[in-house]
Amino acid sequence: MNLRKAINDNCKDCLYDKLEPGTWLQQVTLCVVKSCALHNVRPKTTHPIPESVLSYYGVKLGEYQDLVAAYEG
What total of structural domains would you count in the chain? Predict the structure, then answer.
């Protein structure tokens, strides 16, 4: 198993809930556990997250856009 797959699998196992809105990648992208050693290297979706998913997790569109800009920068 390579490092990227190990990180992805860890984040998915830690956070993903198939009964909650959003794909596993969307849920992991929105992870707020900054004390996690893998937070800065967690997998992040490259596709826009629907506003319905953002609002479910209490994330405003502007906050999400700031997060995306930080990922890219």
Answer: 1
